[in-house]
Design goal:
Layout lengths: L10 H4 L3 H28 L1 E3 L9 E7 L4 E5 L3 H17 L1 E3 H7 L5 E4 L8 H7 L4 E6 L4 E5 L5 E5 L10 E3 L2 E5 L8 E8 L16 E7 L2 H8 L5
Antiparallel strand pairs: 1-4, 2-3, 2-6, 5-12, 6-10, 7-8, 7-9, 10-11, 11-12
Helix pairs in contact: 3-6
């Protein structure tokens, strides 16, 4: 003898029609699409910028080194203006991304470090190591400082003219950017900071690269532009 268990459906379940199930399913999927789509759109249009902001008016000169030669581009010189703007445009576009992309990259951080672990203590060493692949930017007046938070923590911030430069801050007079490992993807980059005032250094003497920025960007277009650049 077999016992059969008969389950009785609640009355409200009997009132559910196929049309209702389809309608609810479409609404639920629609809400998911709208919710996730709105979040993705908000992250996609929210830009994040790495490195330091560099404007044309604040440049003294830009020195580039490619496979064929090295040359300094002076700001304000007509024949150099287009090339200098081209370098800055590609540099600034390469350091921008959006938070949607960073979500899949793990939102990489940017940090400033004292230049101890890197074997590049002076500009002369930098020039020999990156003689064919580099970009050096000198400023008329420092617009950024390296602020010491603790003995091991530092940050790069913009100068606030009204507050001046504090005792725990070192003005940045120049930035040196190696381009030897550039590829067409968003990746880790190292910028070397010159915190020595050129006017206080004897001609021909090396200047200390006191700190580095471990930052991120895609500088493939920048390197292609610099590598093909040649001005008579």
């Amino acid at each position: 003898m077999k016992l059969r268990l008969k389950l009785k459906r609640p009355q409200w379940m009997k009132n559910i029609t196929r049309r209702m199930v389809i309608t609810w399913s479409v609404l639920f999927v629609g809400l998911l699409i709208v919710g996730f789509g709105s979040a993705a759109l908000a992250l996609g249009v929210t830009h994040k910028t790495y490195g330091a902001s560099i404007t044309y008016s604040n440049i003294w000169y830009v020195e580039y080194r490619n496979q064929s030669h090295r040359q300094a581009l002076m700001r304000g010189v007509d024949v150099h203006s287009e090339a200098t703007h081209g370098i800055l445009n590609r540099l600034n576009s390469g350091r921008r991304t959006d938070n949607l992309s960073n979500l899949f990259r793990g939102n990489p951080s940017q940090r400033v470090e004292r230049n101890i672990s890197h074997n590049v203590p002076y500009t002369t060493t930098f020039n020999s190591m990156y003689s064919n692949n580099s970009l050096i930017i000198w400023f008329t007046q420092p617009q950024h400082v390296v602020r010491e938070i603790s003995r091991t923590e530092f940050e790069l911030i913009s100068i606030v003219p009204s507050s001046g430069i504090a005792a725990n801050e070192r003005p940045v007079h120049g930035i040196m950017i190696p381009l030897d490992r550039t590829s067409n993807r968003f990746q880790s980059q190292t910028w070397f900071l010159v915190t020595t005032d050129r006017s206080q250094v004897a001609p021909g003497s090396p200047m200390s690269l006191s700190h580095t920025i471990e930052t991120h960007g895609n500088y493939h277009r920048l390197w292609r532009f610099v590598n093909d650049l040649f001005i008579l």
